[in-house]
UniProtKB/TrEMBL annotation:
This is Transmembrane protein. Residues 206-232 are annotated as: Disordered. GO terms for cellular component: membrane. It holds the Pfam family DUF1191. The chain crosses the membrane at residues 237-261.
Amino acid sequence: MRKLLSRLLSLLLLCLISSAQSIPPPSSRSLDALLQDYAFRAFLRPRTGIPYHGNVPSNFTGIQITAMRLRSGSLRTHGVKSYNEFQIPVGVLVQPYVQRLVLVYQNLANWSSLYYPLPGYTYLTPVLGLLTYDASNLSATNLPELEIKASDKPIFIRFPQLKSLPQTSTPQCVWFDLHGLPEFSNLTSDNVCSTLQQGHFSIVAESSAPSPAPSPPTDEGPKNPTGGGEDEDKSRVWIIVGSVVGGFLLLVLLGFLVFWVQKYKHKNQMQQMEKAAEVGEALHMTSVGNTRAPVAMGTRTQPVLENEYVP
Ligand SMILES: *[C@@H]1O[C@H](CO)[C@@H](O)[C@H](O)[C@H]1NC(C)=O
Ligand SMILES: *[C@@H]1O[C@H](CO)[C@@H](O)[C@H](O)[C@H]1NC(C)=O
Ligand SMILES: *[C@@H]1O[C@H](CO)[C@@H](O)[C@H](O)[C@H]1NC(C)=O
Ligand SMILES: *[C@@H]1O[C@H](CO)[C@@H](O)[C@H](O)[C@H]1NC(C)=O
């Protein structure tokens, strides 16, 4: 029982540590793999440079996917004027070199914040993904992504429409690399973000709810003009500090609980042992009484002695 408890405790600790670290949920990679598979299924006899819309399994209703096959030479020299929201300029290089590649487009729609949670921010657009794969085997699954790099001009993402903006916050572009790590940047213009690489993209605004740093207003004055980046870092630090302290408190509480449970158990055991001893004695007594009752009774009254005295 003690072993089980300590194991449970260490498991909890592990959970706490990993939850503090895992800002990107591991499932976004498996979603990429699943969507690659389903996007490739959209190709029957694919012509190059034509977008094909894929169907997602019913448990992912809402997500939209498109696949387009291209020669990598054509991508470099012509780019793609318009691939849904993406505008790919000339000069995009693919590594490692493949003859043909597939650009998989994802629109995560209402699944965006589930797969790319971003605490402290509100999504103003769905998360859009652009990922590159080797086109040499169109029935392959679990393909690794290729790397693409815009060398001349950046790739533009023209988001159709922003959700209404929370007051006092400015919209920012966010880019998630393949590990799910976010990186923020300024909008290129209204509704437009730019990137040199593939990944997942959206426009976010800081949500007004959390205002964690308890700093005097005199401090905030000179800090604001330097840019919002510092405030973000600060709020993230506070979130991490908060969760660590919270986790620690929880652990201490759990420790107390375990201690108390064990103490209680010990006490209970002692009581039971005492009880058992008592019962044992009682049984012993009764067993003696049962077998030797007449003898005992006889010795107690002892009429024989009286007779001895009388004569
Ligand atoms: C959704 O369905 C697909 C195919 O039916 C399956 O491979 C996948 O594991 C399911 N995912 C979830 C999260 O239910
Ligand atoms: C997204 O919307 C679709 C219906 O349009 C629904 O079936 C699906 O469950 C929703 N996904 C999430 C994560 O809420
Ligand atoms: C393509 O990939 C599928 C699935 O991984 C595999 O079964 C098949 O042998 C591959 N074909 C070629 C030509 O490599
Ligand atoms: C983003 O824009 C703000 C003002 O709009 C500016 O102060 C800041 O330097 C810009 N940041 C970057 C990384 O360009």
